[in-house]
Amino acid sequence: GGDGAGGGGAPAAAAAAERVLFPPTFSVSEIKNKQRRHFMFQRWKQQQRKEKLANRKKRRKEREALGDQAPPKPVPKTIENQRVYDETTVDPNDEEVAFDESTDEFAPYFNRQTIPKILITTSDRPRGRTVRFCEQLSTVIPNSHVYYRRGLALKRIIPQCIARDFTDLIVINEDRKIPNGLVLSHLPDGPTAHFRMSSVRLRKEIKRKGKEPTQHVPEVILNNFTTRLGHSVGRMFASLFPHDPQFIGRQVATFHNQRDYIFFRFHRYIFKSEKKVGIQELGPRFTLKLRSLQKGTFDSKFGEYEWIHKRREMDTSRRKFHL
Length: 323
What we know:
Distance between the termini: 67 Å
Oligomer: single chain
Subcellular location: Nucleus, Nucleolus
CATH superfamily of the largest domain: Brix domain
Largest sheet: 11 strands, mixed
Domain Brix: 116-299
Protein name: Ribosome production factor 1
Number of strands: 11
Function: May be required for ribosome biogenesis.
Keywords: Ribosome biogenesis, rRNA processing
CATH architecture of the largest domain: 3-Layer(aba) Sandwich
Order of helices and strands: HHHHEHEHEEEEHEEEEEH
């Protein structure tokens, strides 16, 4: 007979809940019945949303009433603007940094003495998706050549690259047929960066994509690479592209760093009028996360590391970023 009593109890309980507002010390998690707890939690969320909306309307009315005398809108708190200060953040006018950058491994590119020549290769016997990704990457980076590696060790590839005047080596690694890692090695003397790769979208998977990229040299945009480590990584990416973009091609390769994730996008833009610009994504797109930066060329055993990402030691605060 207990079932019958329980059946009629639910609507009555809901009606009682309608009348009762939560007392200040009450916690929804104290309710033992799962369905009822879920129902009450939804009610509480709804109440919160209503209050938030009412406050927003009230603030808007106050601002409209004050007109020009309205106080400036407060800047919202974000993880980025509450970032923990990093002592290696680079001041644009720092002479020491300027000297380092004029004498580092990438200086010949920025002085236009060296023309980049890139070899893009893969892990052993790549599958379809990785192959297509490498082909599309080679259309983004001018003067790049794809080589499918069949059992040849990286240690043996590097001397051959140097002998043939390649300036950089990109290795795309994969796991279960999906590209999941990128090694970027600057030849002949390094450095070498290891990245974890995620969110890879090939050209055909991008909505409203533009026509195939042209042969023009793209412009390169590097956003938010502020620390010394970030500068090194940004210069590595910049030195993949020739330093004389052909603006007639209207193509832009963007490396955008946000919270230590580097988002890559490739766009074409068009000036619709003096003020309006239309952009169209060409693809591919992917996201990188730096795992280590190594001096010299690729050497997993005896390599000297400038920086390694150690999660337990480094990720102590959500607002601490390294690039």
